[in-house]
Amino acid sequence: MAQDGGGQDGGRQEGLPRGGPARPEAVAAARGGGDPLRGGPALPAAVTTGGCVSALRTGATAASMALRTCVLLALLAQCLAAASSPSLRAAEDNLLADSGHGHFSSQWIVHIDGGPAAADEIAARHGFDNHGEIFEGVFHFEHKRVAKRSVDPSPHHDTRLLSEPNVKRALQQRIRRRVKRDFLEEQGSGRTERAARGGPRSERSKTPVMFNDPRWLQMWYLNRGGGLDMNVQPAWEEGYTGRGVVVTILDDGLEKDHPDISRNYDPQASYDVNSHDDDPMPRYDMLDSNRHGTRCAGEVAATANNSICAVGVAFGASVGGVRMLDGDVTDAVEARSLSLNPQHIDIYSASWGPDDDGKTVDGPGELATRAFVEGISRGRGGKGSIFVWASGNGGRDMDNCNCDGYTNSIWTLSISSATENGLVPWYSEACSSTLATTYSSGQTGEKQVVTIDLHHMCTSSHTGTSASAPLAAGICALALEANRDLTWRDMQHIVVRTARPANLQSNDWAVNGVGRNVSHSFGYGLMDAHAMVQLARSWKSVPDQHRCEVSAPHTDKLIPSKSQVVLQLHVKECAGVNFLEHVQAKISLASSRRGDLQIHLTSPAGTRSTLLARRPQDMSRGGFTAWPFMSVHTWGEQPFGTWQLEIHNEGRFLGTLTEWKLILYGTETEPGNDGDRKSPPSSNTNVNNGNRKYGVNRPVNQSSPNQDENVVEPDIGSPWKEVHVGHTHNEVRGTTEDGISSSGCLSQDSSHRYCLECAPNLWLWQGQCEEKCPNRTYSTIDPASHISVCSWCHYSCKYCVGPNDYECSACFGDATLYQMSTAEKFCYPKVLLPAMDTAAWYQKTVIVFSIVAVLLFVLIALFIVNVFYNGRISNQYKIVKTSEDS
Fold first, then answer.
1. Which of 323-337, 370-384, 487-501, 757-771 has the lowest mean pLDDT?
2. I need a surface site. Which of 204, 287, 326, 473 has the fewest CB within 10 A?
């Protein structure tokens, strides 16, 4: 049933090699001068130099004819070559509709009762090929006579399939645009060389581990030491190399016979989804556009100490490849890739996703989502498949990885990049779903990542977050070897606890409610292989995951132009969730220009996550429909208290929030091996915060080093707020035990650890009763529950009477209280006051001049009209006078 297509249709081009070190040019020459790009038949001899010269010798007329023929055929050959080039194909792909609403493909998903035999019969009866079962009863069909791409669907095929009694559902697949997250190096840069054995070594200080692989000394991210690498060597020295762990690379193929990877190649972790066979070898072309998967695989499991090329992070692990990006990607293609052999494969690494163009909002479809869910619930014998994802390369276009449904998922470890100097790379996307970071490329002149390449080559030029995700997958493989019982959530907990923020420089480091440093650019910091292995060895599996939804009333809320709205949800009880892991804010809103919006979420502990930053390229009118913006910044905090959602509208038109709710994931008891410990490990503390781009997060009764209390981000316009108690599915109010009344608590939650209501004259604040609300909060009565609570001030206020930026009563040291009216008091930075005064004077001057100009215009118009009118009367008088005289 497997069918080989060609080009963009997903199959390998006929005549092109499936593997081996030979360049495609050499293969074409061996076939008698065939087109090296397309692998087709040889062009006429007149196209070649020898043919042209030979033709020119036959005479002047013949030479002229031959020359014209040469030129025409050469131009035709160039057109054919250009038509098949990846750049033109990419341009063609850009014409497809955005965000997964592309052309219809020739593939169908068909739900069939009766098993594979019944599916084969139905497929044959209606002209389909059955490419196999994705899930139980869900089959992947392709029609032989339907266009690979079409603007119009084929409903008659749906009707024919649904006429079968065993068919429960038939859905034609749409093409989804997916891009690799690396960058093409300049041709002829010399950075890619044949994987030679041995070779000269440069002088270097002695390292604890020394390999004879030629590029080992260039692998700075593994061997620099001094806290400037990912601390892999100590894990190797303890014997952890990933042995027994299986990693697969979901990408454009894998050169399985590369001498530096063949020893670790695992055919059971490999498949060709594009051509529907078991061979993941890439399709070769002139530009080596399908080298991406091979490079990623080398980062994970390139063989060590074999005098060839490089060293993989988990050089003892088994590695496979899934060829799924070299063709039209559909929901079915993604699902088949993500669900490949889940009882054998431990870790899936993906360095691709929707366009990183700053305007796309897209994520996994129905089948891919099911693949994730079944993977984490059934994979690895119920411990859960581990999915590692590159966070995205849209930094230049100010993209936000929370608009990517793969990295914005609770099921994936979203990995960002840092340069060799610990800086945020120019391509990096900042978002609250990023969990951690590994090293990768940076600006011109900064080092890049070393790995294997196509044609049995070696490269020192792997780039982008594409290079970061495989390094993370390799580190996870080391931890998994140390403890084979780790679940998918255990791995995320271990990453959070061991990641190191030290030596990573960013202006958005903050301290969350349990004292951990976290950043929108780097997550919890640089992954530390040795720390992960050490913690994994003694790790006890986390308690069961619980999920709690807290919904807001379904009332449309206007978001004024150049202003913001502030909404609050008070969480009193969240069954089974006392310690947070992932937090989602599922939001539906309408906007005339989606990129003008910013969304922030502040937890009861004061941790402020930027769920969405401005995206200037995003001019969509589509808004968001139940989009689950995710944050990991509140990991380990308690959910009880007031959550605050801020939506800023920097555009010229109104927006409308139609629905929002919080989805809180976590555990009933505190995870980890250290009992009731409330503080995080020392590896994630003491970071220079600098100037925080996303506001200031401060845990209660705790200060972070170099804390900057003077960050002011004034807003224009008058925001408003709504405060209410969220509706949960299982809200329980407990009664206090004897002695509790001395603290002023009238009722507690079911664990008897957090207060839910306080006695009169006391204020509820983060599960405790306070006589006075702490700094940066104000006292208020929750209108829904009539409970006395403390709520956060706007982040620009030191003291306030409400949550909005115009309700400040005192400011931080670098700001001044600026009274716009009797009811509006703002805190503006002192450095801005002269500019504001100048602006106010300029505004008044402009108004006065505008009024004067209007008056002058009116007077001049009246004067002109008067002159014209008098002149006309005068002319009429003269005409009448003349006629009378005559």
1. 757-771
2. 204
Q: Around Cβ 593, how many Cβ atoms within 10 Å?
A: 19
Whole-angstrom Cα distance, residue 18 to residue 455? 11
Outline where DSSP puts E strands in 440-520: 449-453, 457-462, 510-511, 517-518
Closest CA to 105 of 4, 177, 164: 177
List residues bridging with 252 in a β-sheet: 323
pLDDT digits (tens, 9 = 90+) for 407-449: 999 999 999 999 999 999 999 999 999 999 999 999 988 999 9
Instruction: For the chain, state the CA radius of gyration.
Output: 33
Strands 104-112 and 138-143: antiparallel
Please give the structure tokens belonging to residue 785: 């529950």
- The string of DSSP letters for 152-195 reads S--HHHHHHHHTSTTEEEEEEEEP---EESS-PPPTT-S-EEE-
Residue 744 has what DSSP assignment? T
- Of 839, 808, 803, give the one whose Cα is nearest residue 824: 808
pLDDT (tens digit per residue) in 829-856 = 776 667 666 666 777 788 888 899 999 9
Those residues whose C-beta lies under 8 Å from the C-beta of residue 254, and which sit 6 or more positions away, are: 261, 265, 270, 280, 281, 282, 293, 294, 297, 319, 320, 321, 323
Q: 6 with 14: CB under 8 angstroms? A: yes
Tell me the pLDDT tens digit for each residue of 777-810: 888 887 656 788 888 887 778 889 888 878 888 8
- With 0-12 / 13-18 / 19 or more C-beta atoms within 10 angstroms meaning exposed / middle / buried, residue 234 is middle
Size of the chain, expressed as the number of residues it contains: 886
E runs forming strands in 136-231 = 138-143, 167-174, 179-180, 192-194
Query: What are 534's two structure tokens?
Result: 């050490």
Report which residue type is found at 268: Q
pTM over 0.85: no
As a whole number of angstroms, the distance between CA 733 and CA 527 comes to 41
Are 429 and 617 in contact by the 8 Å Cβ rule? The answer is: no
Please provide residue 876's backbone torsions phi and psi, each rounded to the nearest 5 degrees: -65, -40
The b/e string for 415-438 (b: 16+ C-beta within 10 A; e otherwise) is bbbbbbebbbbebbbbbbbbbbbb
- Is pLDDT larger for residue 675 or for residue 115? 115
**Residue 589 half-sphere exposure, CB side, CA atoms within 13 Å?**
30
Q: What is the pLDDT of residue 751?
A: 63
CA 282 vs CA 37, 390, 630: distances in Å: 14, 21, 35
Residue linked to tokens 């949960």: 728
Query: 161 and 135 in contact (C-beta within 8 Å)?
Result: no
Q: Under 8 Å CB-to-CB from 138, ≥6 apart: which residues?
A: 109, 110, 111, 367
Report the distance separating Cα 453 and Cα 211, nearest Å: 20
Residue-wise pLDDT for 477-521, tens only, equals: 999 999 999 999 999 999 999 999 999 999 999 999 999 999 999
Q: Token digits for 875?
A: 């002319």
Between residues 251 and 842, the one the model is more confident about: 251
With bands split at pLDDT 50, 70 and 90, how would you rate the model's confidence at 870?
Answer: confident
Query: Whole-angstrom Cα distance, residue 415 to residue 78?
Result: 41
Cα→Cα distances 364→13, 171, 279, 370, 600, Å: 29, 16, 25, 9, 24
**Cα distance between residue 559 and residue 60, in whole Å:** 79
Query: CB–CB of 526/651 below 8 Å?
Result: no
Asked if the model's pLDDT at residue 97 lies above 80, the reply is no
